[in-house]
Amino acid sequence: MSFALSTGVTGLQAHQQMLDVAGNNLANVNTIAFKASRITFAELLSETIKKASAPTAVIGGTNPQQMGSGVGIGGIVPNMAQGNLVNTGNPLDMAMEGEGYFVLKGSEGNIYTRAGAFAVDADSNLVDPTNGYLVQRIGDVGVSDGFQASGISNIHVPYDVPIMPRATSQMTVAGNLSADAVLATTQTQKLTSNTNFTTGSGAVATASTKIEDLVEYTGSLTSGTISYTGYNTAGAALSSLTTLPTVALAQSVDSTTTLADILNKLNGTTGGTATSEVQTLTPDAVATGGHFHLSYNGQTTGEIAFGASTGTIQTALNALSTVGTDEITVGGTELDAGTAGLTFTFGNTAGDVGMIGFDFSAMTGGPTQAGSSIAETTKGVAVAGEGILSSFATASLSAGKIVITESASGYSRSDFDMAWSGDGTLTMPTYFELTTVGGKEVKNVSITVYDAQGGKHVLSGAFVRTDTGNTWDMVLTSITGIIDDITFDNRRIRSIEFDASDGSYSGLNTAIGDTSEFVVTYTFDTANPQTIAVSMGTAGELDGLTQFAGNSTAVARGQDGYEKGNLSSVSVDNRGTLIGAFSNGIKRDIATLWIALFQNPAALESAGGGYFNTSANSGVAVATEAMAGGAGSVHGGTLEKSNADVATEFINMIQAQNGFQANARTIRVANDILRELTTLIR
């Protein structure tokens, strides 16, 4: 009877523990990432009453006789199967699908969990908010951007660290440039200064405004010089043109000079008050036989014969109407190059026809332009015919801006610039915008680019078909912001060529040696011009610009710069990389979650709160990242549910109850028998 009683007790104890396990599973049916346990029973050691005997030649063998001593707990093993994943909408909630555990650091070292309900603390660390454990990272993602500190594995979510701006270094253009489209009206190129002149009162300057009255001028103006540079429609530098007047591409100014005088210098028209203009020519000492030519007001016919006196020369000039470029004779004798120190004085009253200058190109044995001296001794009034631009364009003033309009329409490579030197400071236009690009077919494009400080600038450009077949230029027409300089050579990409047979982009004409980039200098950092390379596609391919018949559809598709930004949201990808979305539209990888793998995860010791520690039988933690080395994937905005199944646990409870009742009945029956035994003596 003692066996029955003791085995019954073991049965009660075992099934009571079975009920405890089922109850714990049911209690955690809604616990994040909980792993249900399963209990197994094992028979206790049996008492051997009679050992087994081997068979002999006379008698067969016998089995052993053993009496069981009850039941014990064989094991309580966690079920490490995957729990269902449920979306939470919180981007910092994370769940593992497949093998692996999140690694967090507590007060006693690393600890492991699959419960990824994380948050950010006051120090911008990613933590488990229930206990403050710090989520750990692996690798060097985010270190170069300053989001993570080198050598520290805690994950820092950089709400307090802005992403620094990046200057645009490359822009991409793509699309079609029409092989046959023609604008309804061939455009005439027009250049406009990027800044306007204003008076001290803030009003827009007019032609009569003196330079010293401009708000752009500071100082006391006694003398100064405005220098002019640029190109004509053919792209030839103004300083190198033999058709230019012999006056230098510069203008002396004083306190009486007005904006009208600047326009007069450019256009070659008489302006200002009636004053005298003295021009002095001192030729080199050369052999006789040469002769002087003069050019007058764009006329092309007529011959000039002068008397022997200065007054006669002045009278003859005042009476000119239809004369061209001719020899000068004095008293019927041609002036030769050996005549030194000649001085001509011209009256510059209203209606006079003034002198462009001396043209030395036809002198026989005469001095060169560089070897001669031409001086204007009276300043402030431009002489008629002295126009720097008069051969191809006209300058005007509109809303305080200088506007240069070309005389003829069509493709043009003209450009212009002005510079100041002398008393005080005169802020000149830093470049001239191409408000209208000359040509038969023009496709405008624009894109927002960024400087080194993260400032936004709208870069406007245009593709223009050149006069050479299958060839285009791209020109930077304007860029917003405070610009210090855009030089001539850095605003136009010349000779973009296309294959006539298939319309593919062929690259730039190497004979010209141009580069596909723009260079802009900003006022805030004049020492470091910003170079913006323009990617137009792969030569011989159709992955960028093309030239087919039809409409021009080319656009600026993208650029690589951005402004300063602050972290606005965080998400995580399947590889466990935290991705930050910043207010400037840029996304950056912040850190990569450290994932741990174990050889025997069922042997991990529960530390409470959904956490585990390693045990002697779990194996060491193998560091990896999600989707690598056998680890599963990470899901953001998701949590893993408990894998405890209510139906299964109810069945386990019923089985535990039945087992408990059966063992209790065994004890009752044994007790009844013992009671009956004690009554035998009565």
Radius of gyration from the CA trace? 48 Å
In CATH's first tier, which class of the largest domain applies?
Mainly Beta
The overall pLDDT, averaged over residues, is 84
* Terminal-residue CA separation: 21 Å
Largest sheet: 7 strands, antiparallel
Structural class: mainly beta
Proportion of helical residues: 10-25%
Low confidence ranges: 270-333, 335-385
Number of domains: 5
Tell me the CATH topology of the largest domain: Tick-borne Encephalitis virus Glycoprotein, domain 1
Percent strand equals 25-35%
Number of helices: 4
Shape: elongated
Q: Can you give a write-up of this model?
A:
By secondary structure, this protein is mostly beta strands. β10 and β11 (126-127) form a beta hairpin. It has 4 helices and 49 strands. The chain folds into 5 domains: 2-81 and 647-678, no CATH class; 88-156 and 595-640, no CATH class; 170-182 and 441-559, Tick-borne Encephalitis virus Glycoprotein, domain 1 (Sandwich), CATH 2.60.98; 192-269 and 378-431, no CATH class; 276-376, no CATH class. The chain starts with a helix and ends with a helix.
